[in-house]
Design brief:
The complex is a heterodimer of chains A (312) and B (328). By secondary structure, chain A is an all-alpha fold. Chain A has helices at residues 2-7, 9-28, 35-44, 46-60, 68-85, 90-114, 119-138, 164-182, 184-194, 196-201, 206-232, 243-253, 265-284, 289-311, and strands at 143-144, 157-158, 162-163, 234-235. The longest helix of chain A is centred in the last third of the chain and has 27 residues, at 206-232. Chain B is built from eleven helices and 14 strands. An eight-stranded mixed sheet of chain B has the order 2-1-3-4-5-13-12-11, sandwiched between helices. The chains are: A mainly alpha (312), B alpha/beta (328).
């Protein structure tokens, strides 16, 4: 048990913070501990969680995918255009959008892995490119989806209480944890992030693995996008722009190092969960959004300082 | 000892938070005012007015929203307000469609939804508390151009976020109105400042370089005239080019003092939120508001149109002579 705790110390601490906050808000606000609010809490974190998982993957490899929000926004525009404007069936619309999202990721990966350009520079550029494509497709306006279509991914509750997007996220987490904690391709990405020279000596093809990493980021941006497009019944070229920095904060809060090679998908998701419970709980207590930002910022700094002290 | 102090302090803080959260007021109910960019003065000026109006009508007012354009965040806030069982939500959204599903959810929960600033699709709200028709909102901005440079000349438009539908519609109506009434006005470009004053200054500088014949730069958002005036001043073009269009009076004052701006327009953004709160309170209480002129205290021109649209018609024109009479 002790060995397990030591191995997953970061995740255990984050899970404990989440539980303490859960109990605290349950007592502090009579509206917090209700079935519908708890379901809300989890469904509200889904898009950010997908982007954070993608962001964490890029950070494991020693980079950072700043275009993840633009890809997500562009995917909402594509879904809305295919389903809403063109009246296409949902499945082909999703497959085409996924293919385009992965192509965006591969393009990022190609420039970073094969052309060896800094990931932040590449994704800053492609962020603008993908936002521009979204703006051109949408003509700068919000593209709506009829309310009776595309409801499955963000507005449907199984058995009357369980949001489908929570199940989608659970699958996404499972896949990400499996890949980055137990499968060789994921472990290779960690090694590339921790020490690219050692990875090269170990015979790992760095460029092709970077390609896979950024394709993974964009695929997860796509999953975030379908949930978001369903929740808002529309697509807009900048709808997820505000989530990019939040995803970096959540990943760092969850223990993912910006220097690469350190962290876990479980930690990243717990980072999202803690930030989301603070937001939801403080909303329930009618605290202003300014105070929420101060609280989240302070919490982030305290955890980072604590972690820094432990590592040195 | 230190640990003990820390624990005690934490407990005190927790208990005080609990007390604050559970404090019950003797009010008729709660109205939430939700804005999509709470950090913009355009909206934040209205916080105290909305709260004071709610207080006067016997309601608690929760004034909240996202600090930047963040649609998923805005939707989460509305969902959390539904969980809090507020009685009404007054909402300023950045677009007309994305909040419709969550607003319908609120209406299903028995919450009155009143939109202001930009209206949303009618199926997502009970009422729209507006200032006047969107087409008419473009008129004072065009009149501001004419008051600055006359009926002829090249004009550039600086707008906020490109995807904001209210801003897009307002530009469309400005161009339509000008084409009909002042065909000598020639709109040469529309540039975006992304609600960023520094970017607005740079955009204005670029316009002054790229369009040397431009005579006016019209701001389509309330935060543009200040930086545009600074750019005109720094480019040494005072008297040749004028900043005009929409502005809060405080942001227009430096330009009015330097001569870079001689006319700007706006409505009282705070009063608009009071209007939304008033309509929300009336809907909660089931006050009869028939189509036609309304008798609502503080809103002499108030009127109800078809489709649950309420207007109160009130705009201000700022000039160097009256600018110091305003402070918001």
């Amino acid at each position: 048990m002790k060995a397990l705790f030591q191995k997953h110390r970061n995740e255990t601490i984050l899970a404990s913070i989440f539980l303490v906050l859960f109990v605290f808000f349950s007592f502090a606000s009579r509206n917090f501990f209700t079935l519908s609010n708890v379901m809300n809490l989890f469904s509200q974190m889904v898009t950010l969680a997908f982007l954070t998982l993608g962001m964490a993957a890029s950070m494991f490899s020693g980079g950072m995918d700043l275009s993840i929000g633009a890809v997500c926004s562009m995917c909402t525009v594509l879904c809305a255009t295919f389903v809403g404007t063109m009246g296409m069936h949902t499945l082909p619309a999703l497959l085409i959008t996924l293919a385009i999202a992965i192509a965006c990721g591969l393009f990022n990966g190609f420039l970073i892995g094969y052309c060896k350009i800094n990931s932040m520079l590449v994704t800053l550029g492609t962020q603008s490119l993908y936002t521009g494509i979204g703006l051109v497709i949408s003509k700068g306006v919000t593209v709506s989806i009829p309310l009776d279509r595309f409801a499955l991914f963000g507005r449907t509750r199984l058995f009357g209480f369980l949001p489908v997007e929570i199940l989608i996220l659970a699958l996404g987490i499972l896949l990400a944890v499996l890949m980055f904690s137990y499968l060789i391709p994921g472990r290779r990405i960690f090694l590339i992030g921790a020490n690219p020279q050692v990875a090269r000596f170990a015979g790992i093809n760095i460029a092709s693995n970077i390609l896979v990493t950024y394709a993974f980021c964009s695929a997860y941006a796509f999953f975030g996008a379908i949930v978001l497009a369903s929740r808002v019944a529309s697509g807009r070229a900048d709808v997820a722009a505000a989530l990019v920095l939040k995803s970096v904060s959540a990943a760092v809060f969850g223990g993912v190092s910006t220097l690469g090679g350190i962290g876990s998908m479980a930690g990243a998701i717990l980072g999202v969960a803690v930030i989301q419970i603070v937001t939801n709980g403080m909303d329930m207590m009618n605290f202003s959004t300014y105070l929420q930002q101060i609280s989240i910022g302070a919490m982030l700094l305290i955890v980072l300082a604590f972690r820094h002290r432990k590592r040195h | 000892m230190k640990k003990l102090v820390a624990i005690v302090l934490t407990l005190i803080l927790a208990l005080s938070l609990i007390c604050v959260a559970n404090a019950e007021g003797e009010k008729k109910g709660t109205i939430a005012v939700v804005c999509y960019v709470t950090s913009a003065p355009y909206f934040s000026f209205g916080e105290s007015a909305a709260k004071a109006t709610g207080e006067a009508l016997g309601y608690d007012v929760i004034w909240t929203g996202t600090t930047e354009v963040d649609t998923p965040g805005l939707i989460s806030i509305i969902e959390n307000l539904i969980e809090q069982k507020v009685d009404a939500i007054c909402l300023a959204s950045g677009d007309t469609t994305s909040v419709v599903p969550v607003c319908q959810k609120a209406m299903e929960a028995g919450i009155k939804v009143v939109t202001f600033d930009l209206d949303i699709e009618p199926e997502g709200r009970d009422a729209y508390a507006g200032l006047m028709d969107l087409s008419e909102l473009g008129i004072p901005q065009v009149e501001s151009i004419v008051a600055s440079i006359g009926e002829e000349g090249d004009v550039a438009i600086v707008t906020g976020v490109l995807t904001n539908e209210l801003l897009q519609k307002r530009i469309e109506y400005c161009e339509q109105y000008a084409a009909e009434k002042y065909p000598g006005l020639n709109f040469v470009t529309v540039e975006s400042m992304d609600e960023d004053a520094e970017k607005c200054y740079e955009v204005a500088m670029n316009i002054l370089t790229a369009y040397p014949d431009v005579k006016a730069i019209m701001s389509n958002v309330s935060t543009g005239v200040g930086p545009i005036s600074s750019a005109i001043e720094d480019a040494g073009k005072i008297g040749e080019v004028y900043a005009c269009g929409q502005s809060t009076p405080n942001l227009a004052k430096p330009g009015m003092a330097s001569g870079a701006c001689v006319n700007a327009v706006l409505w009282d953004t705070a009063k608009w939120q009071s209007w939304a709160v008033t309509i929300a309170a009336n809907l909660i209480e089931g006050v009869d508001m028939p189509v036609g002129k309304l008798s609502i205290e503080g809103f002499d021109e108030g009127e109800r149109l078809e489709d649950n649209i309420f207007y109160y018609y009130e705009t201000f024109t700022f000039t160097p002579d009256n600018i110091n009479d305003f402070d918001f």
